[in-house]
């Protein structure tokens, strides 16, 4: 059984770090692209411009697993020319990236 979303275990299972994201892709486009992988709770874009990294949060572990597999193994519609890399992000790493404050995912257009 999964713990509440605020716990380390559920964050580990529900968040994916995606690398090689084009720095100039608007968040609305990313929402559309990643929505095809599962029920996305939000996209954290803090390091997109500087490092090409976004963090995806999912409501359901099954969607997170499917998204990781799909992102890593095939081109996504809208980012066909990009080879994305996806991995689950450990709770400690997520805390390091965001600090100890509550993470706020961008789900609205810029």
Pick out its properties.
110 residues, alpha+beta, four-stranded antiparallel beta sheet, 5 helices, 4 strands, disordered N terminus, disordered C terminus
Report on the structure:
- This protein has a four-stranded antiparallel β-sheet.
- Helices cover 37% and strands 17% of the residues.
- It is α+β, with helices and mostly antiparallel strands and 110 residues long.
- It contains five helices and four strands; from the N terminus they run αβαβαβαβα.
- The model is unreliable at 1-11 and 106-110 (pLDDT under 50).
Briefly characterize the structure.
The protein has helices at 8-14, 27-35, 48-51, 61-73, 91-98, and strands spanning 15-19, 40-44, 54-58, 85-88. The chain is of the alpha+beta class.
Write the layout of secondary structure elements.
Blueprint: H1 8-14, E1 15-19, H2 27-35, E2 40-44, H3 48-51, E3 54-58, H4 61-73, E4 85-88, H5 91-98
Antiparallel strand pairs: 1-3, 1-4, 2-3
Strand order of the largest sheet: 2-3-1-4
Helix content: 25-40%
What class do helices, strands and sheet pairing give?
alpha+beta
C-alpha Rg (nearest Å): 13 Å
* Tally of strands: 4
Poorly predicted sequence stretches spanning 5 or more consecutive residues: 1-11, 106-110
Q: Could you describe the largest sheet, including whether it forms a barrel?
A: 4 strands, antiparallel
User: What distance separates the N and C termini?
Assistant: 36 Å
Provide the residue-averaged pLDDT: 79
């Amino acid at each position: 059984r999964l713990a509440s979303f605020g716990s380390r275990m559920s964050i580990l299972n529900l968040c994916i770090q995606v690398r090689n994201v084009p720095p100039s892709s608007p968040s609305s486009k990313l929402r559309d692209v990643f929505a095809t992988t599962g029920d996305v709770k939000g996209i954290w874009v803090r390091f997109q411009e500087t490092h090409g990294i976004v963090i995806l949060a999912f409501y359901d572990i099954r969607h997170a697993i499917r998204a990781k597999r799909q992102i890593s193994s095939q081109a996504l519609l809208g980012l066909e020319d990009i080879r994305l890399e996806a991995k689950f992000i450990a709770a400690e790493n997520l805390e390091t990236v965001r600090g100890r404050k509550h993470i706020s995912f961008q789900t609205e257009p810029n």
